[in-house]
Each structure stands twice: as C-alpha cells, then as structure tokens.
Amino acid sequence: MSERDTICALASGQPPAAICIIRLSGDAIWKLAGALLDCGLPEPRRATLTKFRDEDGNLIDEGLALFMPGPHSYTGEDTLELYLHGGPAVIEHAISTLIKEPDVRMAEPGEFTRRAFEAGKIDLTEAEGVADIIEAETTAQKAQALRQLTGGLTEQYDHWRAELTGILALIEVAVDFPDEDDAPEETTAPVITKLNRLIGQLEEALGDRGIGEKIRDGFRIAIIGAPNAGKSTLLNRLAGRDAAIVTSRPGTTRDVIEIRRVLGGQVVWISDTAGLRETEDEIEAEGVRRAERVAAEADLRLLMVDGASPELGVLTSHYRQAADMVIVNKADADLSADLPDFNYKISARDGAGVAELEAALADFIAKKAASVEAPVITRARHRARLVEGLSCLIAARDALDLGTGAELAAEDVRLAIRHLGAIVGTVGVEDVLGAVFSQFCIGK
Ligand SMILES: Nc1nc2c(ncn2[C@@H]2O[C@H](COP(=O)(O)OP(=O)(O)OP(=O)(O)O)[C@@H](O)[C@H]2O)c(=O)[nH]1
Ligand SMILES: [K+]
Ligand SMILES: [Mg+2]
C-alpha cells in the first residue's frame, strides 16, 4: 500500500440516503474518469451531469461529477467527487468498480485530511478542528471546532513561536558577546522582561481549568451521598431510562454508572456512585473509593440526602464542603425535622422538583463553560506540550536571571519553540499523526 495511491471513500453518511458522495484523491482520477464517466474528465470546478459505468460498460448510476485539480483542492492533489443516488447497491457497485483500478484503494480514516496536512494546506490543530466539527453535537462544540479549523489556535501558537524566535535571536546576540564571561545585564534585562510576559501568557492559557477540553469531551457531574439516598433513582430520572439498578437495599450501587446528556448547551457526563459509608465489604469499599475519585474529578458534585432519614447521611463537613449542591430527596415521604442546609428538595421517585434541579444543573454548567473565553487548549495533547514549553521558558528566564548562562537559556528557548511547534505540527509529530488521524471517520 503506497502513500501516493489514489484513495477512495464514501464521504457521505450511512445509506440509504437521497444522495451519496464518493470522493477520490490522487493521480488515477484522470484514467478513471476517462474510462468510467461518459463525460470524461469534467471541466474543473463545474458540476457535470454524467452517466457512470463499470469497466464492462454497465451503467452504475447517473449523477454529478466534480473535478477539483490540485493543488487548489482539499488534499492538494487532483480530487474527484461523484454525487450519486445514496442506495447501498449503487455505493457498492461504484466503489467496487473504482478500487478495481490497481492504484486505487479505500482511504484510511482521516486520510484525505492527512494528505491536506502533508501538503501544508492545514496544520495539525486545524486538522483536529476538522475531526471535531464532524463529531460536534452541541453548538458550543461546533463553534470551538470551527474556530480551530479556521486557524484560531494556529494564530495564537504561531504568534507565541514568533515571539520566541525573536527572543532567541536576542539571546544569541548575548551569547556572542566576545569580551564577557557571560552576557551583560543591559542585554539580558529586556530579554527577561519579554520572557516574563510570555510566561504570564502561557500560564494564563493553562489556567483555563480545562474548559476547552471539557467543551469537546464533556463536563462531569457526580451524584454522591449516603447509601439509599436515592442517587440511582435520580440518575435514572435524568437519563430517562433504567440505567442503574435501584433497590431498597443500601449498598446497591458499586461501580460508577455514567450517562450522557446535553445540559446548558454542553455535553455532560452524569455519574451515579456507590453510597458513601464505612464498610467491611471489600467490593463496596472499592465502590466508595471510586465514588470519591469521581467526585474529586467532577465539575459539579451533587450531595444527596435522604430527607426521611438524614441522620443516615455521611454529612460530615468534609463531604458537605466538597459538594456544590446539597439535594434533599424523598420529599414525598415524611421529612425529618432535622434536615441539613440544602439547595433543592426533590422526589427522585415521583419527579417532583427534578425539573428545577435540572435547570439549576444546566445553569451551573453553562456558566462554567462561559467562564473562559476562546480557550487555546482543546485537547490533552496541547496541554502537555504547553506545560513543557512553559517549564522551558521558566528555565530560560532563571538561567538569564541568575546569570548561569545565556547558552543554556538559548537551548531552553529552542526547546520551547519545538514544543509549541509540535502543537501545530511543524516539528516532531510523526508519533502523534497516527493517533490524531485514526480518530477521524473514513472519507474525511
Ligand atoms: N419515598 C421515596 N423513595 C425513594 C425516592 N427515591 C428513591 N427512593 C427509594 O429509596 C431506595 C434507594 O434508592 P436508590 O436509588 O437505590 O438509592 P441509592 O442512593 O442509589 O442507593 P445505593 O446505591 O445503595 O447507595 C429505593 O427503595 C428507592 O425506591 C423518593 O423520592 N421517595
Ligand atoms: K439502594
Ligand atoms: Mg445506587
């Protein structure tokens, strides 16, 4: 399998559909069009109605063909799109005919976009934006992906790299000072100022509390509380289905059970957890550990209290303080006179108060998502490189500050440039390309 094979894929969704799009990129298009399309190779960029035949001259379908010659195409190569009727038999006949040609094969996931990247049409963050916009389910995900695929992240990272290249040039001048053991302060002071400004900017970007990644991957709500408080009952109600087992026996839930919802315009994962209590039971104890871990990682912790018997609750100040909202459940039953302070009172079983609670959850998540404007980190990959870049800059600054060596500082700045370059994909990315593009769907 050669990288320069002509690739072919169904770019549109699952058949049957009114129309399907079959996409080809590579040199074999000329030959294929000549042999299989009654119109021959269509005039560039002009949708052309044509009959499409197999190698024996049998009609596959009639549809439109669109030829986009390289380099002004998505992949930078010659590309051809065929718009046919989107039935399974048409698609099967069309694709099996196309891949009979020796240099034509099915595309790997993301291979069209990978070729666009390799042709220098887009950088890696823009390629990720393409993958994200296809997956986007919420308006917020779509907006973030669109910003990324139109170069919103590229701009920021390129700006930082340009600043660093300037700083590197200044340090190199200092390194070259002939008569000194090390650079004089007059030359290092302005460099330190510039470095500090950049350090501040990277720290600010990293201080985004992960909002960009959460908009993409989902925010997390953890339901925690004493055994039998009604956590699983609430989860099922929020899910609108029987996701978790509910019984009257305390200690029913052990594993973490997650459901996915869109709340406040964001994807949200809601976790039901094991009731928190001291227990001899090994399995339940593991459940409690998992519950605590999930709670620690959540964006919103809902502490549920059994309103009929709050004394059963693990209402230690530890859990109360960690909770973002305290919910009293079983409002339909005889409520204890001795209720703790709470935010909402509901009956998870009957549904009373649940709509208000849901609205509050949505509001909380929406506010959290809006708390950072235009985050420049949308994946763990970006964060890891930015963290490394930042520590290089701090090392460079300290080396200049302490006068331990402009040479060392220059090396650290070079490393920082590499880390930022890896985010946009200009350097050292061979190892991540596979990971990035394999997440794509086929045909993109
Ligand atoms: N009266 C009343 N009973 C409820 C309500 N919600 C849950 N229950 C009951 O309380 C019992 C425990 O409910 P679960 O949802 O299993 O409670 P849990 O907090 O998940 O319990 P564990 O998983 O064991 O920690 C069940 O018998 C439920 O039917 C409610 O709003 N009102
Ligand atoms: K239970
Ligand atoms: Mg449960």
From TrEMBL:
Cite the entry's keywords alphabetically. Answer: Cytoplasm, GTP-binding, Hydrolase, Magnesium, Metal-binding, Nucleotide-binding, Potassium, tRNA processing
Question: What is the cofactor note?
Answer: Binds 1 potassium ion per subunit.
Write the Enzyme Commission number(s) for this entry.
3.6.-.-
Q: Which InterPro entries does the annotation name?
A: G_TrmE (IPR031168), GTP-bd (IPR006073), GTP-bd_TrmE_N (IPR018948), GTPase_MnmE (IPR004520), MnmE_dom2 (IPR027368), MnmE_helical (IPR025867), P-loop_NTPase (IPR027417), Small_GTP-bd (IPR005225)
Does the keyword Kinase belong to this entry? no
The residue ranges of the TrmE-type G domain are: 218-366
Q: Record-annotated residues binding GTP?
A: 228-233, 247-253, 272-275, 329-332, 347-349
- List of residues binding (6S)-5-formyl-5,6,7,8-tetrahydrofolate: R23, E81, K121, K444
Where is this protein localized, as stated in its record? Cytoplasm
> What's one GO BP annotation on this UniProt entry?
tRNA methylation
Q: What's a single GO CC term here?
A: cytoplasm
Name of the top EC class for this enzyme:
hydrolase
Q: Tell whether Hydrolase is among the UniProt keywords.
A: yes
Entry GO MF terms: GTP binding; GTPase activity; metal ion binding
Subunit annotation:
Homodimer. Heterotetramer of two MnmE and two MnmG subunits.
Q: Which family does it belong to?
A: Belongs to the TRAFAC class TrmE-Era-EngA-EngB-Septin-like GTPase superfamily. TrmE GTPase family.
HAMAP family xref list: GTPase_MnmE
Q: What is this protein called?
A: tRNA modification GTPase MnmE
**Which taxonomic lineage is given here?**
Bacteria, Pseudomonadati, Pseudomonadota, Alphaproteobacteria, Hyphomonadales
